[in-house]
Amino acid sequence: MTTPATTDYFGLTIPLMSLLGLVPERVGPDQARTVLPWRADLTNSRGDIHGGTMMAVLDFTLSAAARGGEPGLGMATIDMTTSFMAPGTTDLVIEARCLRRGASIAFCEGEVRGADGELVAKASATFKIIRRRPGGD
């Protein structure tokens, strides 16, 4: 098995995102943007990007928006709701926003759009914020 190249995912190493080929574009306070290039090995039986793949990259991009560029913050997904509007037939752009980040919970929403701007999927998610403690794991 070939190990994918390591990519910097806004200060983190995430092997699954490297395997999927997700490209991190930008992150800032309460927002993040990534791109998933279309590849045949990411598709379902119809040749569209698999819904599970889209959910995985949405989960990462939503959590990146919740971190807001602070790699020392960890996020654990509590729940995520995804609605699919159209098949993913091209490169996909994933944009996410953090709507509210409290002391222990963050609420985010995001969208997946095709290269032509068509809305492919949208999601909302809730994350448990995990702060690293000095001397902790």
Automatic annotation (TrEMBL):
CDD domains: PaaI_thioesterase (cd03443). Residues 47-121 form the Thioesterase domain. Pfam families: 4HBT. GO terms for molecular function: fatty acyl-CoA hydrolase activity. SUPFAM superfamilies: Thioesterase/thiol ester dehydrase-isomerase. InterPro entries: ACOT13, HotDog_dom_sf, PAAI_dom, Thioestr_dom. Keywords: Hydrolase. PANTHER family: ACYL-COENZYME A THIOESTERASE 13, THIOESTERASE SUPERFAMILY MEMBER-RELATED. Belongs to the thioesterase PaaI family. This is Phenylacetic acid degradation protein. It comes from Bordetella genomosp. 7. The lineage of its organism: Bacteria, Pseudomonadati, Pseudomonadota, Betaproteobacteria, Burkholderiales.
